[in-house]
Amino acid sequence: MVLIAVYWVFLFFLILPLGVLTGKILKVEQENPFITLLLGLVLLTCGFTLTAFFIPLGAVSLMIWTLASLISGIYFKTKIKQLLIHLAQGLKTLPSYLKIIISILFFGTLLKSAQYPFVIDNESYYIQTIKWLNEYGFVKGLANLHIFFAQNSAWHILQAGTNLSFLTNRINDINGFVFILCVVYCIIGGYKLNSAGKMYWLSFMPMVSIIPFLFLDVPSPDLPLLVITPIILHLYIQHIKGDSNFKIALLLFIFLAFIKITILPLGLLFLPGLVRRENIAFGAVCGVPVLLLWIAKNSIISGYPFYPIAHVKLNVDWTVPKSIVDLIIHVTTDYGYKRDGVLPANTATATKILFWVKQSGLAGIINKLTIAVLLAMPSFMLKDKKHKMIYVALLVNFLAVLFTSPQFRYFLYITLSGSLFVVAALSNFIKPNVKIIKAGLIAGSALIFVTFLNLGLSKLTSNKRHHQHGEVRLRQALIPEGVTKYPDMLYLRQNTGNLNYYSPADNFLMFGTGNGKLPCVNKVQIDFMRRKFNVEPQLRSADMKDGFYSARSLNK
User: Fold this and answer.
1) pTM of the predicted model as reported, rounded to 2 decimal places
2) Which are the contacts of 323, defined by CB distance < 8 A and separation ≥ 6?
3) DSSP count for the chain of H helices, then E strands
4) DSSP helix, strand, coil percent of the chain (3-state; round to 5)
5) Terminus of the chain with fewer CB atoms < 10 Å: N or C?
């Protein structure tokens, strides 16, 4: 925990000057230190993405951006001092119950970040994606080795750039930093907008903090969507003529779309505001460079410029066979509807949605809760144009996910944001005693500690790999656990054609890789692709940094 706290301090002072620089360049200067930090995250993510085309994301790349931050810090030292004073004053003036909530969340986040990671996607491709970035940067055709590497989220690029891999293999904990940053912003922002007898919807973030808390111990791209989306909606609502709230909200939306494309339909929210010439120009200045980085990254990794959209592909030797891309898209889509089996061919859409609604476990709970929230929201969201637009954008975003790949992680940010509006509306209608609200907020924040207990996870998910949870150990007070939940995993050296690779000795998951030495891929996956498509990954040259391609199998 101590090591992670020191790491967060490093991130704070790395990112804050870059946030000031971003605000100056884009002319969206902020007095709010939390928004300034988010602006810094945007610049650093884009910066590391650009860097990864040329060099690995290791000591040199971090040194480059640390130097840029240092120069910015010196040049804008007066502004940074003002932001630090503003931060201290904002925290100091909070009432005691909010200070208690922040303390609970801060301690719990440090403890969660110090544990072994929980989410199984970390073991299939998060760790390996980050490791490839740390050791090589972007590698041509990397998705031929493991199709999940095609995702290569901007969030993993940011984590790879800041994880100090040249010093330790125990730091993949940027999610905890961003969680605290965003939740504290919501707490302070909500408190300032509360009025007599009426609670602002952002104030209830502590009550639902357990949802993003589940994604803290891995560099999951779901976390930024969960905690930044409410901030985007808040800035959108609070925007008045002459301020920068709309532009900042638009920039943060572009940032989230860069991280995870499933949020793209939420952009409907900004269409009315883009009729103004200055907003169109701002959107182009921010969006076009990010779009070009996204297309270039996808083209290098998979050969599909708009991955996971597979309709356009490059005519290069490292392009992943379309049959493999189509299979993965089909499997992940069906999994969203029916997690415990494969859907029959040509299953009607209505039947798929029925399967989706009737799912059991945690997925079923989230699915039903999302429907309930979206049905309840119109009763509270039709009071003005901005709230109507938020509801329409959230609903369209949900429907887009529902008819493509409705895994609950892909729309959980909609559930969380919608719940905040509903809970706030109910609270303001019922008008409970202030002490009850305060107690509820404290209890809601303390609910995060339930995640440290063994409460029979088998009842919530049939995935046995999710039945395990991290244990609290005394040594975690100083040093966090490693980046994998399988630190003792053994790997066997395997060969196929000109490719020598490392495969887990224990086939814990067909797409599982853990923290194996590069190149790492499960032999079971290699064998499956060989049987299914008669292809196998091969090196493009004797040097692994030149990448991979899919060749006709030599071993049938």
Assistant:
1) 0.95
2) 533
3) 21, 4
4) 65, 5, 30
5) C
